[in-house]
């Protein structure tokens, strides 16, 4: 079994935040979710509590098992766990993307969806008749078809080096996904991965604010009116999220 | 059949800064005003409350406060040879919607434009001769001078509690201010903002180079402030969440905490939210606007609202669209250069440089939308353009608006462990200084109606044809070179200049400074409105906002939008209400 596969099973069995970080605080009461999602149904599901005992792991609501395996493997390469600390997988980014695609982002209800459809210039922006959720749904099997032909395995079961090669082939548009531009799918995947790594933990990623801690972004602080002028005094980095102010148990 | 409501004195199509200012002034003069706003009602106490307003994903990335483009967007092409395609998701600009319009989620950099801007054609001819002006460049004098506008700049600055330092008080140059600005009658109502370390480095470097740095004028309150209308605002906490967000400290002046409560307190102002205006109706003479028709978005009902005075205050695209779909005036044709509606569309251009300051703890998360140190030495006609091959310029600034982690995308577009290391390293050490660059009107840049794509109400979308033309890349290169020098002088390493790309793109955010299309001027064959933003042919129709600006300066627009709107309100109250007709 490959590295990626190993890690995936391990995390699934035990509940993400509990295993990788030892503390659980990514849960949000439903009211917070409602606040965070202005648009109509389908609502983004609440992130189930990940307790220190790992009693209640996240259940994917948008991705099927093939898709979740792909996305977990992909985000783990896009932002890997390394000597600097947890990566996107450990931060719950696959859960973040699942929640986003199940919700109003996935449906892109605030994008313009009328035809006729026509490819334009790069300056004219996105012109595919596919919602973000449909891009993932269409692309993942196509990438797996490709890796099956090349390596006789699904993307999720490749070695890390092979996965990197495939991702970079998608990024450069060198891998032919037929009617779907590989670069477009890669751009969604990378953008959503970074979003999940740096967004408020209320959305299921950035667990324990690991993304913010990596770069030194203090998160949700009331203000910095003194800090702005204190050029030489280091800011005491006490990280906070939206949930830090709305939960019983801060941070 | 549309349901017809009883007539009111005045109707505002759109409730942002322009609609709000007019509503406040007119209602206090006893006029009854209805504001029709397509977006939802927002109670800032609830919607902008801490901590939920500090949600970068919801507001910064998914544009939670901006226009819903599933209902209305525009189509875009760089040139007439291309097929324009719809802007399917927001990008280049973030149009406002809901209470306060874009004023609810703006940054608050509040400028007076330079005296040169209002007399650009005659001053350019006088200094450089007609030969300096590109054949396709349609610059013109505005028909209103800086001096005429000055009292209204002052009025807007007091309403919005602008913090800054005067550079030219009644003709006397003041240390620490902008020596290039037009003469001001009085100081700003509030002191300047605190200066960040980045600003400090910029200040020292530009001073050393012989330039004239000063603190950028700001609508982020630098101290608690009560404006002349009695509206109280709190002090800015430099939380770094201005642009795209509402302010939880009530510290950022917006229509929501200034002019709208002032208008509502008179009891003569009613705002109807979720009301999308689809048409301006004219009488049979074609010389008088009688009503507007809107769709009540909660019921789907079509409703006609008659009014004596009709104000299009729906931002550039809304204003131009309503003129076009209501067939008021002649559509501009870039081939024949005839017609006026859609002419002189311009946008804010940019230049700048990026680098790293590895030995400094920049605390880039701290900041405010209008926190900046600026030099104006290369804006307008403040420097000699002889032989440069371009006109106008841009303001150059180091601004600390708060680097939020998704949007500032530390480490660039790449991925993997190398990216992660770069992101961790870069976040607090990456620096940029930028130039806000003017955009002059060219014959082929314009707005009209799209032949194919429609909005949710069956109306054609506005079609934008826009690209960088003429000498704009030269201007951008010139300013990029200067920003590169400054950043190097600030001690930055790995300095790279960022000029304009080859073509304008609708994809990345640049600015919501979209102007022109219903421009002001003295000549009805080349302008839609007179210098009071009153329609040249229809004296009770006013097309208000940056849609009336014949070109785009090297500064943000809203200070000038506010001043122009107050000037109109003053003329209405002092003259038009007593004797309706064309304002001269
Ligand atoms: C992110 C951002 C940052 C900005 N920062 C700055 C800055 O720092 N400095 C600066 O000077 N400017 C800035 N601006 C620009 C500034 O916000 C605008 O110049 C200003 O708000 C324009 O005011 P307005 O009244 O013309 O339009 P808006 O504020 O856009 O109001 C127009 C209103 O009309 C409504 N409307 C449109 N069409 C219809 C219709 N058919 N029926 C009914 N209602 C309609 C809209 O929903 C909107 O609420 C910024 C803008 C944005 C988006
Ligand atoms: S930076 Fe200041 S003005 Fe801007 S949102 Fe924060 S507190 Fe308000």
Explain what the structure shows:
The complex is a heterodimer of chains A (251) and B (584). Chain A is globular and about 55 Å long. Chain A has 251 residues and is mainly α. Helices cover 45% and strands 0% of the residues of chain A. Chain A contains 11 helices and no strands. By secondary structure, chain B is α/β, with parallel strands linked by helices. Chain B has 12 helices and 24 strands. In chain B, strands 1, 2, 3, 11, 12, 13, 14 and 24 form an 8-stranded mixed sheet that branches. A 6-stranded antiparallel sheet of chain B has the order 8-17-18-19-16-22, with helices on one face. In chain B, β13 and β14 (302-312) form a beta hairpin. In chain B, α1 (17-28) runs parallel beside α8 (259-265), α1 (17-28) packs parallel to α12 and α6 crosses α12. The longest helix of chain B has 19 residues, at 558-576. Chain B is globular, with a radius of gyration of 23 Å. The model of chain B has no long low-confidence stretch (mean pLDDT 97). The chains are: A mainly alpha (251), B alpha/beta (584). At the A-B interface, α3, α8, α9, α10 and α11 of A face α3, β5, α10 and β20 of B. The structure holds flavin-adenine dinucleotide (FAD) and iron/sulfur cluster (SF4). Residues 220, 236-242, 245, 247, 249, 251-252, 368-369 of chain B line the site of iron/sulfur cluster.
């Amino acid at each position: 079994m490959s590295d990626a596969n190993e890690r995936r099973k391990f995390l699934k069995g035990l509940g993400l935040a509990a295993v990788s970080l030892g503390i659980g605080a990514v849960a949000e009461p439903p009211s917070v979710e409602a606040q965070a999602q202005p648009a109509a149904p389908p609502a983004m599901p609440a992130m189930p509590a990940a307790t220190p005992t790992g009693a209640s792991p996240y259940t994917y609501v948008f991705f099927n098992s093939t898709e979740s395996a792909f996305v977990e493997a992909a985000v783990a390469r896009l932002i890997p766990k390394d000597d600097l600390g947890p990566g996107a997988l450990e931060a719950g980014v696959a859960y973040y993307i699942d929640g986003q695609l199940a919700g109003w982002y996935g449906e892109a209800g605030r994008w313009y969806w009328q035809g006729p459809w026509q490819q334009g210039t790069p300056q004219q922006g996105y012109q595919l008749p596919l919602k973000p959720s449909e891009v993932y749904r269409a692309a993942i099997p196509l990438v797996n078809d490709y890796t099956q032909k090349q390596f006789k395995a699904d993307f999720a079961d490749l070695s890390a080096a092979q996965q990197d090669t495939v991702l970079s082939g998608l990024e450069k548009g060198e891998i032919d996904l037929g009617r779907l531009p590989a670069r477009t799918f890669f751009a969604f995947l990378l953008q959503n991965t970074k979003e999940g790594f740096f967004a408020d933990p209320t959305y299921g990623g950035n667990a324990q604010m690991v993304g913010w801690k990596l770069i030194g972004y203090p998160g949700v602080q009331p203000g910095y009116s003194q800090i702005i002028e204190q050029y030489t005094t280091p800011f005491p980095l006490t990280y906070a999220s939206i949930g830090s102010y709305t939960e019983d148990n801060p941070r | 059949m549309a349901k017809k409501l009883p007539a009111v004195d005045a109707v505002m199509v759109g409730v942002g800064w322009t609609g709000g200012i007019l509503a406040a002034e007119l209602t206090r003069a006893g006029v009854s005003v209805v504001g029709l706003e397509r977006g939802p009602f927002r109670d800032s106490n609830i919607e902008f409350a801490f901590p939920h307003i500090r949600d970068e994903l919801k507001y910064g990335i998914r544009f939670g406060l901006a226009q819903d483009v599933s209902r209305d967007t525009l189509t875009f092409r760089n040139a007439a040879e291309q097929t324009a395609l719809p802007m399917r998701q927001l990008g280049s600009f973030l149009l406002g919607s809901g209470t306060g319009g874009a004023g609810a989620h703006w940054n608050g950099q509040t400028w007076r434009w330079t005296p040169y801007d209002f007399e650009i054609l005659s001053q350019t001819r006088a200094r450089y001769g007609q030969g300096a002006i590109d054949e396709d460049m349609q610059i013109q004098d505005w028909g209103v001078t800086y001096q005429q506008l000055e009292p209204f700049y002052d009025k807007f600055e007091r309403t919005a509690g602008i913090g800054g330092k005067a550079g030219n008080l009644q003709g006397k140059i003041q240390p620490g201010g902008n020596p290039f600005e037009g003469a001001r009658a009085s100081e700003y109502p509030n002191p300047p903002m605190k200066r960040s370390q980045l600003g400090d480095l910029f200040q020292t470097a530009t001073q050393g180079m012989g330039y004239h740095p000063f603190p950028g004028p700001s609508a982020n309150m630098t101290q608690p402030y009560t404006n002349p209308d009695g509206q109280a605002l709190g002090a800015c906490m430099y939380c770094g969440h201005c642009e795209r967000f509402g302010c939880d400290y009530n510290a950022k002046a917006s229509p929501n905490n200034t002019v709208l409560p002032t208008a509502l307190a008179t009891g003569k102002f009613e705002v109807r939210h979720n009301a999308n205006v689809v048409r301006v109706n004219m009488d049979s003479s074609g010389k008088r606007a009688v009503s507007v028709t809107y769709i009540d978005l909660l019921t789907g009902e079509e409703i006609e609202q008659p009014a004596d005075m009709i104000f299009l205050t729906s931002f550039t695209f809304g204003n131009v669209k309503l003129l076009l779909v209501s067939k008021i005036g002649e559509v501009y044709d870039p081939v024949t250069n005839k017609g006026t509606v859609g002419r002189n569309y311009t946008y804010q251009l940019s230049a700048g440089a990026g680098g790293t300051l590895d030995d400094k703890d920049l605390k880039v998360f701290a900041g405010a939308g209008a926190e900046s140190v600026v030099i104006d030495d290369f804006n307008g006609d403040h420097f000699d353009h002889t032989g440069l091959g371009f006109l106008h310029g841009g303001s150059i600034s180091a601004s600390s608006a708060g680097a939020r982690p998704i949007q500032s995308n530390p480490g660039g577009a790449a991925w993997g462990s190398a990216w992660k290391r770069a992101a961790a390293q870069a976040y607090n050490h990456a620096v940029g200084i930028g130039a806000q660059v003017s955009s002059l009107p060219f014959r082929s840049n314009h707005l009209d109606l799209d032949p194919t794509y429609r909005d949710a109400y069956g109306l054609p979308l506005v079609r934008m044809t826009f690209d960088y033309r003429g000498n704009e890349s030269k201007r951008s290169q010139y300013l990029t070179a200067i920003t590169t020098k400054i950043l190097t002088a600030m001690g930055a390493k790995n300095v790279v200049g960022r000029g304009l790309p080859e073509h304008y793109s609708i994809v990345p955010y640049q600015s919501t400074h979209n102007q022109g299309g219903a421009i002001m001027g003295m000549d009805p064959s080349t302008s839609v409105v007179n210098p009071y933003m009153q329609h040249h042919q229809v004296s009770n129709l006013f097309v208000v906002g940056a849609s009336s600006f014949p070109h785009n300066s090297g500064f943000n627009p809203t200070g000038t939008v506010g001043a122009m709107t107050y000037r109109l309100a003053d003329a209405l109250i002092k003259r038009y209400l007593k004797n309706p007709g064309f304002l001269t």
